[in-house]
Design a protein that fits this description.
The complex is a heterodimer of chains A (about 450) and B (about 950).
Chain A (H helix, E strand, L loop, with lengths): L1 H24 L6 H29 L4 E11 L2 E9 L3 H22 L6 H20 L3 H19 L6 H32 L4 H4 E2 L6 E2 L3 H18 L8 H4 L5 H22 L1 H6 L1 H22 L5 H21 L3 H20 L4 H11 L17 H12 L4 H23 L5 H6 L6 H8 L1
Antiparallel strand pairs in A: 1-2, 3-4
Chain B lengths: L7 H16 L26 H12 L7 H9 L5 H9 L12 H12 L8 H7 L7 H10 L12 H9 L3 H17 L15 H9 L12 H9 L3 H11 L4 H13 L2 H12 L13 H20 L12 H24 L4 H4 L4 H11 L2 H31 L9 E6 L4 H11 L3 E6 L7 E4 L7 E3 L8 E7 L4 H24 L4 H9 L5 H9 L1 H15 L5 E4 L15 E2 L3 H14 L9 E8 L22 H11 L2 H9 L9 E8 L5 E3 L10 H23 L11 H13 L15 E5 L1 H4 L2 E2 L4 E5 L9 H26 L12 E4 L3 E4 L5 E2 L4 H4 L8 E4 L3 H10 L1 H8 L4 E5 L6 E4 L9 E3 L8 E3 L2 H5 L9 E3 L9
The chains are: A mainly alpha (about 450), B alpha/beta (about 950).
Chain lengths: ~450, ~950
């Protein structure tokens, strides 16, 4: 019975998505209220299920819930097992996702009212909830990738939500490319698990109950796997060197910014590392890299954030810096602290994102209550920095650490040059041809008339 | 710089300065968003006739002058435009033969009704191939194709970005905008960023260059910037701009075009720079030395650097003109034109054989071209407005004929409202609830222009129309015996502020943010869930806590001033009003309303405003006559002054008799949650308690009914609400974090009626009419009318035109949907993380609006109103250039004339008559609107005697 609860929590949003998608393909666009009711029902199932499991865990001391759907397929020695499980790590995150989907769903019902993409938004929200739950409860890293990619896909589609304007689409594309680049790391990590440890299943890899788990991998294997996981996690959690995409993700509607970049999606990378915590215990090198990446990101993000003058970007850099600290906590071996921090941060940031349009109003109220002077900011540590360096830091932060220029110069442009060079090898596909030779138009039709 | 006027360099600088001053008028004139003032979006074009201005502006900004043809056709299908409207309008258009059997009028009529399908170059090929065009006639199409010739001359790039784009496919706007936007946003930031921009006190040019001079890793398209910055640092902004223009080889004759286009590439930011330059006090917290010249100089410096980085030579951008793409587009548009001609010919029943006679095909084509899309939309729009005129004026006329003038029989009380269109329904409901109450209206600052600070405000703000600069400071202060409570409140609020401030900064920084989110973070799910799932209960809880912790002291207004007291040295404001000034203010409002005597025992003066959450555009819903702020204090002070016996004595000398047993009460109406607060009730004499109770009961019922009526527009409100439910719904909207439409504001506004309430009392005007109390019989000199229209035309006209433009082109003139808006620098909103500042109204504010120019109906004779308007140059410009519409209703006979142009003496008026719109009747407002969410026709509401279900 308890296994079915877990299944229900994970699959409810997925089933709702499929139901709506099939209906839509048959030409049914449900009324706003119907969509909202379905979402509310799904989130009730999710919250109820998560609460029930949480209650059982506390009451009975049960360490995890586990349900298996057997093997999906087997190729030679490889088997893709379809297993879900919830333990002390996944359950809080499933609970968080459930609660936030409910809250953000309720928020969006009002917020998105009459918007052209209302239906699309809720479809993507449900698909995202399914992806996140799947990633959190996946019994193997193979399955986790499935959820991970669904979260990435919905994230990108929601950034490009206002697809009649150019910027959202461009920025979504950039985020998508960054995700792809980072996901290579995750894929390689899973390959390495299979190759070096023979499996990517949670139960085979890690022994004991989270957070007191250990891994039976050689330090070398753990280092390789750990570094590759870090590569993947850094992309999803906007850590160095992938951090530049986060502000671009602010093009979407506010509620999606909130649940994705304040809460769930952006913390998925941290979850990945927490899941694989034993790997980092086994490899001090990998753990050290996690600390380094986290610390560097936290530092750069908090520095950059000091000059940001718009509401959503400042929240995104604030989120990035706290994520950096969460990475540090993970790397230093404080998984429980990291989990508490993660959940607390996700909640605070979601509310801040949802209230981002209030920043003007709040400031004015505080300003009035303070008697017209809120005091100056930026005079904390700044006193010790020489003024010349301060100026340079200002430029550095204003240009967001030169992230875009560096990425354009070192990565984007070389790839574009390479691909256009490759394209020009093909006779009719050079860039000039594409731009300058329109197909003959109109004339033939008229000639046909004349003949 | 140099005094010699023949010095070419000085001449160039002069020219540049003048040019920028001139071109700046084309930028949006919206200041920081915290104070939103409605104005004519095309103010810069107001000296031209409306129909010409919208087209010229459309060309300049790439915006739409009217709705699309499809929208008008939709209105035609719904009978909102009728065939007769189109026919009447065509009568006014020039006629003449096109072909022997076809006149120009016939051609135009056929192109409108049944109309020609819209064939676009982008889809014409597909339509031809799929045979979707009207019965394809091959020979006819060939003929049409032949006369559809003509090519567009090759166009030179107008600004560097176009040339570079043609040459390389690189859009340098994409390169310089992120940097320019960040620099500008940081420069004008009012306190959002943790580090203020260094060197701001030296101006934008200097501050930006200081930052740009720092070592950097430049974007690939800006590698040459480091070469330009040191050179520029040695120059003034003006010289820097000249230098950039020279470098880009833009010669003086081309300056105007290039600079205009460069400014319009980011109109929001450029406009904000300009607004802060001419009115630095608009900045809500930090005054900055803004300058459009400096903004432009940085922009062109970045442009020059980008052009050189991409093309190698900065001046070569002028050479690139793309050939192939143009030909391609020409061919498509020729096909589309041919298809268009063919359709017209077929509608007119002309075949190929007929058209190949003489040069008839060409003559037809020319005639069709001369009635192009813009022309058709113009006629459609005028027809749309004509129907609106008849929908308003005919029922008004019939109402007057049938019911005459209606006033309460036994006067119980009088209530003054603002002229705001949203108060129309409130007044109607008050009168329906208690027919013995009479209502009046005046511009919502009630003649009291003041700089006001409440006990909770840090600084004073102007509560008056933006064109007025207040001379007097009024301060709210704790009443006797409440000082202690006030001190405590002050202290607690300071603690609260420092806590909130600390948290909002800390949660975004590293270490403090870590502590906050780890320790407390998870608990914030409780307020979050409460706020979103049950906003009304959350708000009640917060209010309850506030009342416990921060009880409000009783207060009074400091507004007395002895005649000889002088101005405050610091802010140049006079503290309070003298007796003379007080009397002037009361006399002004009462005499304009025609209220010289016969006041009721109780007169309530209600200012208004609107409170909503999570809404950067909150101020746009406030009282326009109070400069986008809430007008409660104006009502309060008006009442306080009118209660002074000395003032009443002086008023008597001016022929205004306030009975001794009349008491004034000030109040505030929140148009969002329909809350009503009355002030200083403890001062109301014991003798007036029962009057007060009666008025309060009426207001209480009326506000709930008003909320219920408003709910009909909101899809989220259940259909079966009662009045209490409607009120709760309105309150919930005001407290809902996720609500992008807390109220609809002035949406659907279309009419401004200036006249006695008796002419409109009992009419359902659907919250679409501004109402000004005015009695022409008591104003023989037209003086009161002049004062009244002097405010009403710019204010109501400005609101109407802002709604007009934001709804005909919501992306171009308005600011699009609210959902991706991002508050930046505490002065505005932009889309996403690096966009232009968005100005105008949001889509959520105008989605139900009918774009028509406001129709003024003034209850006086045509001659009197025209002469009055003619005397005021600004108002005459509004009217003469047709930015507003005007009708006059005779006070004696009720006959209505519509103004059709001309200065006094040669003015043309049309007598309004007919039965194509009929005044309908309903027992109550509720019966009339129930079950409808769209605009409703005017109706006579029988009386308030019938009980209203609810």
């Amino acid at each position: 019975m308890n296994e079915q609860v877990l299944t229900a929590v994970v699959t409810a949003p997925g089933l709702a998505f499929i139901f709506l998608a099939l209906g839509w393909m048959l030409g049914w666009t449900p009324a706003e209220r119907t969509i909202v009711r379905i979402t509310a029902f799904v989130s009730l199932v999710m919250v109820g299920g998560a609460a029930w499991m949480g209650y059982l865990m506390l009451a009975t001391g049960q360490a995890q819930f586990y349900t298996s759907f057997g093997d999906w397929f087997r190729v030679g020695e490889y088997e893709f097992t379809f297993e879900l499980f919830a333990d002390h790590l996944s359950l809080p995150l499933v609970g968080l996702t459930s609660a936030l989907v409910g809250i953000v769903g309720s928020f969006s019902a009002r917020y998105m009212h009459k918007e052209r993409g209302f239906f699309r938004f809720f479809m993507l929200l449900l698909l995202f909830a399914f992806g996140a739950d799947l990633a959190f409860t996946a019994g193997s890293f193979d399955l986790l990738i499935g959820g991970w990619e669904l979260v990435g896909l919905t994230s990108v589609l929601l950034i490009a939500f206002f697809n009649e304007r150019r910027e959202p689409v461009r920025n979504a594309l950039r985020v998508f490319a960054t995700y792809r680049l980072a996901d290579i790391g995750l894929l390689l990590a899973v390959f390495a698990m299979h190759y070096l440890a023979g499996s990517s299943e949670e139960g085979h890899l890690f022994l004991g109950n989270w957070p007191a788990q250990h891994v039976s991998m050689s330090p070398f294997a753990a280092t390789v796997v750990g570094l590759l996981l870090l590569w993947g996690a850094a992309g999803k959690s906007a850590q160095f060197p992938f951090s530049g995409w986060l502000p671009r993700a602010m093009e979407g509607p506010t509620p999606s910014s909130a649940i994705f970049y304040g809460a769930i999606s952006v913390h998925l990378g941290a979850y990945l590392l927490l899941r694989a915590e034993p790997v980092f215990i086994a490899s001090p090198i990998a753990a050290g890299c996690v600390v380094l990446v986290g610390a560097l990101t936290a530092f750069l993000a908090t520095l950059t954030n000091r000059v940001v003058s718009d509401a959503k970007t400042t929240l995104s850099y604030a989120a990035m810096s706290q994520l950096g600290i969460i990475f540090v906590e993970i790397g230093l071996g404080f998984p429980t602290l990291a989990l508490v921090h993660l959940v607390g941060h996700a909640v605070v940031r979601t509310l801040q994102f949802l209230r981002a349009p209030s920043m003007l109003h709040d400031y004015r109220r505080v300003h009035a209550a303070a008697g017209g002077d809120v005091g100056r900011t930026g005079e904390h540590y700044e006193g010790v920095i020489p003024s010349g360096v301060r100026l340079w830091l200002y430029r550095f932060s204003l240009e967001r650490g030169f992230y875009d220029s560096i990425a354009d110069t070192l990565v984007v442009n070389p790839i574009l040059k390479l691909s256009s060079a490759l394209a020009s090898l093909e006779p009719d596909r050079g860039p000039e041809h594409a731009a300058r030779k329109p197909e003959p138009l109109g004339r033939p039709m008229v000639q046909e008339v004349e003949s | 710089m140099k005094s010699d006027s023949h010095d070419p360099a000085a001449d160039a600088s002069d020219h540049l300065r003048h040019l920028i001053d001139h071109l700046a008028h084309f930028l949006p004139a919206q200041g920081p968003i915290g104070v939103f003032v409605h104005h004519n979006t095309l103010h810069a074009f107001q000296h031209k006739p409306f129909e010409q201005a919208v087209v010229e502006a459309g060309e300049m900004f790439g915006t739409e002058p009217y709705w699309s043809e499809a929208k008008y056709r939709e209105a035609f299908a719904q009978n909102r435009i009728r065939t007769e409207d189109v026919e009447v309008l065509l009568q006014g258009e020039p006629d003449g033969p096109v072909l022997d059997e076809v006149s120009r009028h016939q051609l135009m009529r056929a192109m409108l009704i049944p109309g020609i399908r819209d064939v676009r170059p982008s889809t014409v090929r597909w339509e031809l191939e799929e045979g979707f065009l009207r019965d394809r006639d091959a020979t006819l199409f060939d003929l049409c194709y032949r006369v559809a010739g003509g090519t567009v001359p090759p166009r030179k790039p107008t600004r560097p970005r176009d040339g570079v784009l043609q040459a390389t496919g690189t859009d340098i706007d994409d390169v310089i905008h992120p940097l320019l936007i960040r620099l500008t946003a940081a420069y004008v930031d009012q306190g959002l960023a943790y580090w203020p921009m260094p060197d701001r006190e030296f101006g934008f040019w200097s501050a930006a260059l200081t930052v740009l001079a720092q070592p950097s890793f430049p974007a690939p398209e800006l590698t040459k910037l480091s070469k330009y910055v040191p050179k520029a640092q040695a120059m003034t902004a003006e010289d820097g701009l000249l230098f950039a223009l020279r470098t880009l080889s833009i010669s003086e004759p081309h300056w105007e075009d290039v600079i205009l286009q460069e400014l319009l590439a980011l109109p929001g930011w450029a406009g904000m720079m300009r607004q802060l330059e001419i009115e630095p006090e608009l900045a809500p917290h930090d005054r900055v030395r803004a300058s459009l010249m400096e903004f432009l100089a940085i922009r062109l410096l970045l442009t020059a650097a980008a052009v050189e980085s991409v093309l190698g030579e900065p001046e070569t951008w002028t050479e690139y003109v793309s050939e192939s793409v143009r030909t391609h587009e020409d061919e498509l548009s020729r096909l589309a034109r041919a298809a268009h001609y063919m359709e017209v010919a077929q509608v007119l029943g002309l075949n190929a054989a007929r058209l190949s006679r003489n040069d008839d095909a060409r003559r037809l084509a020319e005639a069709i071209d001369s009635f192009g899309e813009l022309e058709r939309r113009r006629v459609w729009h005028l027809a749309y407005e004509r129907r609106h005129e008849r929908q308003i004026l005919l029922p008004l006329l019939q109402h007057r004929k049938k019911y005459g003038l209606t006033s309460p029989k036994r006067l119980a009380a009088q209530i003054f409202f603002c002229i705001d269109d949203r108060e129309e329904s409130m007044r109607r409901h008050v009168e329906e609830v208690d027919p013995d109450i009479e209502t009046f209206s005046a511009a919502g600052f009630f003649g009291v222009a003041m700089n006001y600070a409440g006990i909770d405000d840090a600084h004073g703000v102007s509560l008056c129309p933006v064109v007025v600069k207040p001379q007097h400071a009024i301060r709210e202060r704790p009443a006797d015996g409440h000082d202690e409570l006030y001190e405590r409140r002050l202290k607690l609020r300071k603690h609260w502020a420092s806590m909130m401030r600390h948290w909002s900064v800390a949660s975004r920084t590293l270490v403090r943010g870590w502590l906050g989110t780890t320790v407390l973070g998870v608990f914030s799910i409780i307020p979050m869930a409460a706020r979103i799932l049950s906003p009304l209960n959350y708000a009640r809880l917060v209010r309850w806590l506030n009342d416990r912790v921060l009880p409000e002291p009783r207060t009074e207004l400091a507004f007395m001033r002895a005649d000889h007291q002088s101005q405050e040295a610091t802010d140049g404001l006079l503290a309070g009003f003298t007796m003379q000034e007080k009397t002037d203010r009361i006399a002004g409002v009462l005499s304009a309303a025609g209220l010289f005597k016969g006041m009721a025992r109780l007169v309530v003066v209600l200012g208004h405003g609107s409170g909503s959450l999570n809404n950067p555009h909150e101020s746009a819903y406030n009282c326009g006559a109070c400069g986008g702020r809430n007008g409660g204090p104006n009502g309060r002070i008006f009442a306080a002054i009118a209660n002074l016996p000395e003032v009443r004595a002086q008023l008597r000398d001016r022929g205004i008799f306030i009975p001794e047993d009349t008491w004034f009460v000030g109040g505030y109406h929140d148009t969002c949650n329909d809350g009503i607060d009355l002030y200083d009730l403890e001062r109301v004499p014991e003798t007036h308690r029962r009057d007060l109770d009666r008025v309060r009961a009426a207001l209480d019922t009326a506000r709930a009914r008003n909320a219920l009526e408003r709910s009909r527009r909101f899809d989220w409100a259940p259909d079966d609400l009662d009045a209490e439910g409607g009120l709760r719904h309105a309150q919930e909207r005001a407290e809902h974090l996720a609500e992008p439409r807390p109220e609809y504001g002035h949406s659907t506004n279309a009419v401004c009626i200036v006249g006695r309430r008796a002419t409109t009392r009992g009419m359902f005007l659907d919250r679409r009419a501004f109402l000004n109390s005015y009695d022409a019989n008591l104003d023989p000199t037209n003086e009161a009318l002049g004062r009244l229209l002097g405010a009403a035309i710019p204010v109501c006209g400005g609101i109407s035109l802002e709604y007009y433009f934001s709804s005909v082109d919501n992306e171009g003139y308005g600011c699009g949907t609210k959902l991706p808006h991002n508050v930046t620098g505490l002065i505005g909103v932009m889309n996403g993380y690096e966009g232009d500042l968005r100005t105008g109204l949001t889509w959520q504010m105008v989605e139900i609006h009918e774009p028509v120019r406001i129709l003024f109906v003034v209850e006086t004779t045509p001659q009197r109103v025209l002469e009055t308007i003619y005397k005021n140059p600004l108002n005459w410009e509004f009217l003469n250039n047709r930015w507003i519409r005007l009708a006059a209703q005779d006070p004696e006979t009720g006959v209505i004339h519509m103004y059709r142009g001309g200065a006094p003496g040669e003015d043309r008026w049309e007598l309004i008559d007919g039965n194509d719109e009929v005044l309908q009747e309903a027992p109550t407002s509720r019966d009339w609107y129930r079950g409808h969410s769209g605009n409703l026709p005017l109706a006579r509401i029988q009386s308030g005697k019938t009980a209203v279900g609810a």
